[in-house]
Amino acid sequence: MILDLTEHAAADLQDISAYTLDTWGAEQEEKYLKNLYRKFSEILESPDRWRFREDLFPRCQVAFEGRHLILFQVNDDVLLIVRILHGAMNLGSHVPIEFQEE
To answer: What is the reported pLDDT for 102?
Structure first.
């Protein structure tokens, strides 16, 4: 299985990186990003173990890392990270339109 990120997820990672760096410093920013990528690896190893949230979009699954929720789909041999959102956010309002229409 291969890992892919939507443009939204890539932008989320950039935002998380910038905020963490500005707020907590370089060491914490590096640690948090490593933890996120470690979680991506865990999902790749056993995607079936994660909870489904089809109320958000079809085939949506979720995994927590720190204070963030990783929204993803498994499509054949591709793990698609759709969004990486803070747990306090209204998740439904941040689902990309192309996933709402599936």
So the answer is: 53
